[in-house]
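fold-stage: in
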Amino acid sequence: MTGHATVNRRTMLAALAAMPAACGGLSPSAAIRTALAAAANPRRVGVIGHTGRGNYGHGLDTLWLELPETKIVAVADADAAGLEAAKQRLRVEAGFADYRQMLQTARPEIVAVCPRHPDQHLEMTLAAIDAGARGIYIEKPFCRTPAEADEIRAACERSGAKLAVAHRNRYHPTLQAIDQLVAEGEIGRLLEIRGRGKGDRRGGSEDLWVLGSHVLNLIHYFAGTPRSCSAVVRRGGRAITQEDVRPGSEGLGPLAGDEVHARYETERGIVAYFDSIANDGTGGAGFGLQLIGSEGVIDVDCDRSPLAHLRRGNPFAVDSSATPWVPISSAGAGVPEPRRDLSALVNQHQGPARDLIEAIALDRPPRCDLEEGAMTVEMICAVFESHRQEGRSVSIPLAERSHPLLRL
């Protein structure tokens, strides 16, 4: 047996222990049988990156090396030096400068669209679908406008391809523990949700896109589908105008504003807020959201461990005896985290990847699917559309599908 085969077997055995939890509704025995069958006939993966424009995201390329049920068969990178480095990193011989050629030659079943720059996502995704890909795992921001999301949706509906967006917090098992705490009344009546971006130099519109997309996706999860948005976008303390609009960095499209304040009404009657101010002085501590209830608060800190904390008590009362923050694990508040696979599951994207594989096999939507990705884009563009209409409430989905800043 070769060393590579030994590594694969060890990786497979380690993965089997975590497989039941990662396989949705499958029973442990069914999950193990599924894993064994997949390892014997791994799904072919093609990786699209671009070292010269956004690199390869946050591990969306390398995660497939850790899954015995997948095999990377090719990588594409228009940057020659980046391509050679990627071939070594991904342990693959087939490298292409043109991702379209890679797709047509290698014909992967799953395509990882890895660049951070969303201006390339539409073309890359459509090309993958056209080449017969059955699954796509795509870096966020998913795309730049509702119109682009519409094109991708139509292509997926025609082909039956499954698309999952890399909002990795959405796959965190602690979310279900938070759901249970809220349902059991641990924070009383849920009054509102407040989300913030990172508030660093990118604060405002760029923060809304790059990091706020994670927060808005979680607002969608906890509050249900947003129905309307009212917002204001400022630069230097004044409302932005067309003269402030500039091409955004990292292919984000038109951007303007170093301050964003948005309010969403949702299908469940919960009002949610998102705010971002450049260089707000918080050191990024506000990145995430808070579920504010009449008898407590749950604080969700995106991309941190533990993901969430609970503080019981009336959040609006001045009370020196207020209880301390209690960490929330996947098993509940104040319970030590029982899952040893949590970092791989969330931080290394293995949970989303396995969920996508199961979605393909069972012909169901991935957990964070195209519709969730498209709604996040709607929520972002609704901020600019409301500002364009002088802060009036605008309905979601938006009637106009192009970028609102182009019509400011």
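fold-stage: in (second)
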Amino acid sequence: MKKYKDALDLVNISRRFEKKNAVDNLNLMLSSGQVTCLLGPSGCGKSTTLRIAAGVEKQDKGEVHISGELISDGKRQHLPPELRSVGLMFQDFALFPHLTILQNVIFGIKSHGSKEDIFYRGMNLLERVGLSNICEKYPHTLSGGEQQRVALVRAIAPKPKVLLMDEPFSGLDNRLRDDIRDQTLSLLKEEQTAVLLVTHEPAEAMRMADTIALMHDGVILQEGAPYNIYNKPVDARVASFFSDVNIIRGVVKQSRIDTSFGWFITPGIEEGTSVQILIRPQHLKIDFDRKGKGPFPTSEDGVPARGFVARARFVGNESLIELRMSADSSILKATVPGVFLPSKDTPLWLSMRRDRCFVFKI
């Protein structure tokens, strides 16, 4: 029998609501000092998973272990949230309006410590997030960013074994959000807390996580380090969740498929199989003409394909170009750093690197 020694182990967890499996035989492990982001679209089961870990929701089957101890089997054994040594942080912060900031922070600290120790712990945490000077104020007088930081230090003040965070940054404006995320991550690393962070934003998961678990329809599609899950997706759903993708379809013939960008080799895929090639807009290269290019493709960029500009937009730090391809009238998107706004119907040539493409069966 396996010995569960991680900070949090969710083992074969399932939860069903009416006729739908919100969570379906899910397995997830968290280690101390690591941030795991449970990422996915709304309704995929990620918040239900977090609530099961917290003890707010009871699973239909499976086990929850914390530091090797069985916390819940969904039946006979089910420890309530307040006895699980977990910290909870939700998007509404849920601060106590009648308590000062310091009183909010130290509320959950166990009383076996001296009053001086508890006071020092609370003030030290507030100082680390730059709020010690307003410790006597009340929550309603604080900005959203300040309330978020208070909620964070309140959750970690009792030194929980696991911190569970459900969309904690969603109420903040974009400019403030990145600063708060960075400050939060720094504090969590200092505390060596095991963190399960639920989010629907890929950028947030990439910024915060040591490990990303991408969830869809109650199951984890892929789990791994941000770099690996972004660059080595297991299927089209994973690849397309992290960014826009262009899709080129074809049928395997003689271990390859024919496209307007030349042949794509498809070793190991059966003859006659329908496949799709995915490539992100930033990996398409744009040229105005083919001067100097020989009749044969390079091994890196393949055969250039001609298209005509359908639309060009400047979107901040880059330009997004949509092209209608001559070969099949499909629309492909490419991005270019800075300002590049060719007129509609301008002919352009696209090429794409083979090592930046993903090939999946349909």
